[in-house]
Design brief:
two-stranded antiparallel sheet, Farnesyl Diphosphate Synthase
Length: 337
């Protein structure tokens, strides 16, 4: 039997911000997880195996959670947000499957990636299945507005993936080109999740814009912080390999800031590291990053976007759900570092 989606738990004061937020929307998220499991069924055994493996592999379910919280922050009391949240998670999971193939990543969230277990072909095709299944589910929602938002979002995400591919191995990537990638690749789905929360609640265009702006800035804050943690995080805790971005030849904000502030010799080291990839230059590059305070500068940028996210929702009526949005913005740049 489905749990009561309207029950609101008061956040505990003895937990971390994310724990409090997850507790607040636990009933809704339980229903989302049930909907995800029910919607994954296929007559093709391999699809079930790969899809269940990646969907059940952990993770915070942050994007569907944002849709839940945004809808509740608008006073929504129905249940149509549950399939929408599942759709958001399916699209995110599809991007992960494709990302890991493109990036040749062997681990994610502390376990082997699907492509490491089943190979590239299975990962790409199951990712395609999740994309197509998500659009089948959208048809079931029967809303052209939802279809428009999600079609635009998935197209923008694909553009971001291609832009990132073009940037690989290019040490002269500047902040403008970096932000073009993460706005498309990461922030767009955050924005869509929050926007859909307002749409399903019929909250009006002003609130919709406010929540969309909140989601965009929150997504930017999370991605910048992730890029910082790639150089300065706890790999075991994060479930990822530290230095993976540099090994791929991927210039992210910490490296861009360090290169701009480095000496000519330091810049040459970074350029060679990005062009050649691998981990051979990790030590010297880390020295340059520390010398230029690049991690602090990049995290400051994440903090600024989190602040802009909070500013975007100042006009919303205060509630535990709006407070949860503020807590997530704070959490975005205060994670384990």
């Amino acid at each position: 039997m489905a749990t009561d989606p309207t029950a609101v738990a008061e956040p505990r004061t003895d937990t971390q911000p994310l724990d409090s937020v997850m507790e607040l929307c636990a009933a809704d998220m339980q229903n989302v997880n049930t909907h995800i499991r029910d919607s994954l069924q296929s007559d093709v055994v391999l699809i079930n195996q790969v899809a269940n493996y990646i969907v059940s592999s952990g993770g915070k379910r942050l994007r569907p959670m944002l849709l839940i919280i945004s809808s509740r922050a608008c006073g929504y009391q129905g249940e149509s947000h549950i399939p929408l949240a599942a759709i958001i998670e399916f699209i995110h999971t599809a991007t992960l499957l494709h990302d890991d193939v493109v990036d040749e990543s062997d681990t994610r969230r502390g376990q082997q990636t699907a492509h490491a277990v089943w190979g590239n072909a299975a990962s790409v095709l199951v990712g395609d299945f999740l994309y197509s299944r998500s659009f089948q589910m959208m048809v079931g929602v029967d809303s052209m507005r939802v279809m428009q938002i999600m079609a635009d979002a998935t197209n923008t995400i694909a553009e971001g993936e291609v832009l990132q591919l073009l940037n690989l191995g290019d040490p002269e990537i500047n902040e403008s080109r970096y932000f073009a990638v993460i706005e498309n690749k990461t922030a767009k789905l955050f924005e869509a999740a929050c926007r859909l929360g307002a749409v399903v609640a019929d909250a009006g265009s002003e609130i919709e814009r406010s929540l969309a702006n909140y989601g965009r800035h929150l997504g930017l804050a999370f991605q910048i912080a992730d890029d910082v943690l790639d150089y300065d995080g706890n790999g075991a805790h994060l479930g990822k390999t530290i230095g993976h971005d540099l090994a791929e030849g991927k210039p992210t904000l910490p490296l861009i800031i360090a290169r701009d502030a480095a000496t000519a010799q330091g810049r040459a080291v970074i350029d060679q590291a990005v062009r050649e990839g691998g981990t051979e230059f990790m030590g010297p590059v880390m020295d340059i990053i520390r010398e230029t305070d690049a991690l602090d500068s990049a995290m400051q940028a994440a903090s600024e976007h989190a602040g802009q996210a909070i500013s975007s929702i100042v006009g919303m009526q205060d509630s535990p759900w709006v407070d949860a949005l503020r807590q997530l913005a704070e959490y975005s740049f205060r994670r384990d570092r």
